[in-house]
Every structure is written in C-alpha cells, then in structure tokens.
Amino acid sequence: VQLVESGGGLVQPGESLRLSCEASEFSLSGYVTSWYRQAPEKGREWVAVIDMSGAATNYAASVKGRFTISRDNAKNTVYLQMDSLKPEDTARYYCNARSLRDEYWGQGTQVTVSS
Fold first, then answer.
1. Which of 27, 39, 45, 69 has the fewest CB atoms lying closer than 10 Å?
2. pLDDT for 44-71, tens place per residue?
3. Which of 24, 7, 14, 1 has its CA nearest to residue 92?
4. What are phi and psi of 75, to 5 degrees?
5. What's the CA gap between 33 and 76, in Å, rounded?
6. pLDDT tens, 61-102?
7. Which residues does 13 contact at the CB level (< 8 Å), separation at least 6?
8. How far apart are CA 58 and CA 77, in angstroms?
9. Residue 1: per-residue pLDDT
C-alpha cells in the first residue's frame, strides 16, 4: 500500500508544474486527499484538500488562485496544478490520503522555484 508523488522539478518564477499522487493497492476514491509541503527548516504546511468525489476543494491562502487540486478516480490519482509559481513555493510536496479508518503519506516530490 503506497502513495507515490511525481512531477516535481526545477522551474523559474511564473512557470507551472503539475504534481501527481498515485495510489497503489488501495482505492484512492475512498479517501479525502490533501497536499502538504515542507520547506527547509520549516514545519509541514497544508496546501490543498479535495473530497472523495472531487466536488469540494479548499486551499491555503498562500496558494489560492494559483494552485488547483483535482482527482481522477478512474486513474486512482490526485493532481496539484501549480501556476504562477513563486520562489516561496519551493518545498518538498507530500500527498496525504485519509479516511475514518486509516491514513497514508507519500514520500514526497521536490519543487524548486528559482531564477
């Protein structure tokens, strides 16, 4: 059972990235799924959440209007589209899947925004 994040990389300010979080050996459709991030020497910060159906989403104030969380339950994957990236978005991004019964974390994918 695992979550695997992908799509991170090095980009310049103003550019975009799309992160993916794919679940294996369990159905992600039964889990509320969130993205978190952690910058060097800082605590883990919640970024965005999406409900099981994909109908409801919410975002941290720091990314609202620039990031979009979505899911494709047929592909067992949740996405984070990140536009207008800023240097302060530099962090390792983690996927979290949570139900009433259990919770899973991925290993993260690094996003670096630098000119």
1. 27
2. 999 999 999 999 999 999 999 999 999 9
3. 7
4. -100, 0
5. 11
6. 999 999 999 999 999 999 999 999 999 999 999 999 999 999
7. 85, 86, 87, 113, 114, 115
8. 18
9. 73
Give the Cα separation of 5 and 85 in Å (integer).
18
Is there a contact between 82 and 65 (Cβ–Cβ < 8 Å)?
Answer: no
Tell me the one-letter amino acid at 72: D
Q: How many residues does the chain have?
A: 115
SS3 letters for the chain?
A: CEEEEECCEEECCCCCEEEEEEEECCCHHHCEEEEEEECCCCCCEEEEEECCCCCCEEECCCCCCCEEEEEECCCCEEEEEECCCCHHHCEEEEEEEECCCCEEECCCEEEEECC
